[in-house]
Design brief:
Length: about 220
């Protein structure tokens, strides 16, 4: 009997004709740098003897089929998605993961003899390609210092997902006066600037911190 994949699967209730369910266990949430490979597993009794579908669900969207039986793809799905099935474990591989691939991924079993779905899916695995911020700290230009002014600029770019928090420090102590967080800049007069040994910009993203420091003696 030919096996026909489903195009989407809301799975709000058991599909008609569904066979008895298996308890499926998926791997925990995964994160990686953009361009790296993500592998998601789906384990359970006799998984290797059944056809496996993998579905992608982005926030606010319906689930979409990405692979079926076990390493086929619907039209329009790129070949960065591939499936494998061996023993009691099925695997979805996402090669060259990018921000657009951030989503929940669910496995679904189909009975190989009756061509009917099992009534359960896996619990889902959230995949997040993460990119650490690029941070550059620019010291005050000589012209500003000559005019009794000092502006430091902390340039933050190329991070994903979400947002960053920025902290300014002078000689290791946090400062908040004359700080513009939307521009990530710190302003002071040249006397304030010269009274400190160093200024730092600390950028925290997804629990990791990048620190850039400039010594005032290097900008005299």
């Amino acid at each position: 009997m030919a096996w026909t994949p489903s195009s989407s699967l809301p799975l709000l209730s058991s599909p008609a004709g569904a066979v008895s369910s298996y308890e499926l266990t998926q791997s925990p949430p995964a994160s990686m740098s953009p361009g790296q490979t993500a592998r998601i597993t789906c384990g359970g009794p006799s998984v290797g003897g059944e056809n496996v579908e993998w579905h992608q669900q982005k926030p606010g969207q319906a689930r979409a089929l990405v692979t079926y039986g076990d390493d086929n793809r619907p039209t329009g799905v790129p070949d960065q998605f591939s499936g494998a099935n061996s023993g009691n474990m099925a695997t979805l591989t996402i090669s060259g993961a990018r921000a657009k691939d951030e989503a929940d991924y669910y496995c679904q079993l189909w009975d190989s003899s009756s061509n009917n779905p099992h009534s359960d899916t896996g619990g889902g695995t959230w995949v997040t390609p993460k990119s650490a911020p690029s941070v550059t700290l620019f010291p005050p230009p000589t012209e500003e210092l000559s005019a009794n002014k000092a502006t430091l600029v902390c340039l933050i770019s190329d991070f994903y997902p979400g947002s960053v928090t920025v902290a300014w420090k002078a000689d290791g102590s946090t400062i908040t006066r004359n700080v513009e967080t939307t521009r990530a800049s710190k302003q002071s007069n040249s006397n304030d600037w010269k009274s400190k040994g160093s200024y730092s910009c600390e950028v925290t993203h997804e629990g990791s911190t990048v620190t850039k420091t400039v010594k005032t003696s290097a900008c005299s």
